[in-house]
Specification:
Order of helices and strands: HHHHHHHH
Shape: elongated
Largest sheet: none
Number of strands: 0
Oligomer: single chain
Strand content: under 5%
CATH architecture of the largest domain: Orthogonal Bundle
């Protein structure tokens, strides 16, 4: 890569990183300013525009980076099935760890998806819809391979993701001693959804 392009990309990633870190401290995105983010990244405010059109553009980029990372994560988790690990438990644990490691942006996406006036609502909802569609397709393929019919895979996928993300966000404010209990409860709920979908598919 050209040194100038490499430097520009490094600055862009730094802007994303400092914003994510600030969100992880408990700030909401709408309290941030372009000048503040630029200062945290160590660049003049005017240089910000070399990387993003405005602060909203940076917000959309954060959501897109989050989406790519989540898809890569879930693809990796599915590859662990051959190792004998429970896919459901592996998925719940992986999503929790991801949310814990990326709690600022994770909170932002959940909050923005529920805000009717948010500029990021459509993008946040789109992330969940894309993940649900991907999971639904996987559930159907996996069911066919096992020779087990599955009913309402899209509804099942939506319900599973809702539980995983809700649990992940909840665990951010949960004492360490109680986390295993919440994770185990989430695993049981997702298994119940899976068994119910299989039962409906068999009718």
């Amino acid at each position: 890569m050209d040194p100038r392009k490499k430097k520009k990309e490094a600055t862009r990633q730094r802007l994303l990183a400092v914003t994510a870190e600030t969100l992880a401290s408990g700030r909401s995105f709408d309290t941030l300013s372009l000048r503040e983010v630029a200062k945290l990244a160590g660049i003049p405010p005017t240089s910000f525009y070399r990387h993003f059109h405005d602060l909203d553009d940076l917000g959309f980029a954060l959501i897109e980076e989050h989406r790519k990372a989540l898809f890569a994560l879930m693809e990796g988790v599915r590859g662990q099935v051959s190792d004998g690990r429970s896919l459901i438990r592996a998925s719940v644990e992986a999503v929790y760890e991801f949310i814990s490691d990326n709690q600022g942006v994770s909170r932002m996406i959940v909050q923005e998806s529920m805000s009717p006036e948010s500029a990021f609502r459509e993008a946040s909802e789109g992330l969940f819809l894309a993940m649900a569609s991907d999971l639904s397709d996987y559930l159907e393929r996996e069911a066919q391979q096992r020779g087990v019919p599955i009913g309402y895979p899209k509804l099942a996928a939506n319900a599973m993701l809702s539980i995983m993300f809700t649990t992940g966000i909840t665990l951010l404010n949960t004492a360490e001693v109680d986390r295993d209990r919440h994770i185990n409860a989430a695993v049981i709920k997702v298994k119940m959804i899976m068994r119910g979908a299989e039962a409906l598919g068999a009718k």
